[in-house]
Write the structure tokens for this entry.
Amino acid sequence: MDADDKELQLQVQSEIAEILPDSTDETFEGLSLAPQEVLFAFKLVELNDNIEAYKLSYGVSDYKKCLTQGSKLAKKKNIVEACKRLREAIWQRAQEILPITLLQDIESIRNLDILDYYEADGTARMLDAIPAEKRKLINNVNRMVNSKTGESYLLFDLPNKNTVTKTLLDLIKVRAETGSNREDTNTMGEAQAKINEIFGNIGVQKNESV
């Protein structure tokens, strides 16, 4: 590893350590990833976007190259494993420092199963057939019309489970910035506004303080 790679490795480790202070080395143990690949995996988990992750990790602005190389790299076996480990490590970190009430709601989105809302053929379930706890995740019920057949059907507006890791990262950062701990019950206006913004973006409004 040359001097530039070592410098990049330290920068990457520092960025990840802000979120996972005790897990940086063991998270990637045995994967033999270059520093830029580690950064790509982290950005992919954070942004859920191959193109943007590649752009930020490799300093490439050409869209076509980012699209091609980002998609290729995201399918690499060791990158897939690194992303899996990162998501689990982030979830474990969140369990250590975030309020249980927030984690419960995030967990319900994390485990969202489309078959709780739709039949196997894609037909929406009747609302009274969906458990009350599951119905809480429905932001809106839209009545749509098939332009070809004229038949109407229901479409549920549900939170995007792909945003869960990004949500956790944002909340962990809020926690770090406020310097509060899991047991704090004091109202923190700025942090609370950030949390409501985060949950609003995924369709779930929260009022608890971090």
